[in-house]
Amino acid sequence: MLRLIVLTAATPLLLRADDQKEAYSPSKTVVVIDKAAPIMASEKTLASVPAGTVLVYTKEEGNWLLIPRFGGWLKRDNSLPLERGEEHFTQLIKVQPSSAAFHYRGTVRLQGGQFAEAAADFTEAAKLDPKSSSPLVNRGIAKTGLGDVAGARVDFDRALELAPKDPFALVHRATLSIEENNLPSAKTDVALLLEVAPQSVEGFNCRGLIHLRENKLDEAIADFSKAIEIFPQFSGAYLNRGTARYAKREFEAALKDYASAQQFDPNNIRAFNDAAWLLATCPDEGVRNPKLAVQLAEQTDAMSDLPVGNFLDTLAAAYAADGRFEDAIEAADHALKLMPEADKPPTVLRLEKYRQKKAHIEEPSVTAPVTPAP
Questions:
Q1: For the chain, how many structural domains are there in total?
Q2: Please, are residues 106 and 89 in contact by the beta-carbon 8 Å criterion?
Q3: Where is the signal peptide (predicted)?
Q4: Is residue 355 part of a domain?
Q5: Which of 115, 140, 274, 315 fits as disulfide partner to 155, beta carbons 3.0 to 4.6 Å?
Q6: CATH code, 333
Q7: pLDDT of residue 21
Q8: Residue 13: inside a domain, yes or no?
């Protein structure tokens, strides 16, 4: 159970608007098709982004897209909506198969959750360019999505044999190590990452997550704050800093971080789920808001393509907090049908509470989830 995002009635709530004008990309995500697409601010070039890069934008102004990752604008003509990227690169592959074309199509498929297809594309890219580390790193990410953690580590290791100081490979191997609770390995990779890239937001975020796992909350907050200082739109760093502050029972400070996390990523389904959980179960009665918890939990369920056990578990807790115990029992029963066996015991205990017409209250704990890089 992820229990990280908090919003109260006094905190801005970002609702999903269905009546907005048609966007260039429905997901507000594009893939760069120009070899070196500039990110501009006024007449200054802030960055040059290679083809195949997937970017999220937050605003459209004529032919320009605002890219928060760089704090500047990308010309729309230099990109395609993510929804059209796979078709575009497939046509390129038909005309002239190349490592780059397979790699770019794999990146698009990876973004869309097509992990097996993405892994196959990265394999072809690696065959055509065996000295490049990037296809191996991305194949490792795809394998992680497929649950092949051992295979992912092999790919990250091989990538770092080819390029020992590749920041991209270091951050993803460190992230995998954190997920496996292999903190010594994660620390080694993060130390090297921050040595070769001292302003790496991913490096500070990873180091903060290590501190969270070690329950060093002040150190974690300092690292997440540094990541935010470097990249003020980094939603994941706000989430993680909120986690640390929540664990310290600094609820008001956590509220501000959670609101910022949603502001910079309003489609972050975890933000809605975790907000609902905290609002339903927080030990501070002044923070609990059952009706808003129900609203957020129902939004989470609506945003998910398929029913998810943890999300339904949160919905059940929200219903119970609001006194809707029959609805809570139904949601918890549904959650248990979807959950893996290892995750079921806490939900079973909560279900018994709901049957006794009791809400669930929970003390803060450090869960230290791993958030994606920006």
A1: 1
A2: no
A3: none
A4: yes
A5: 140
A6: 1.25.40
A7: 55
A8: no
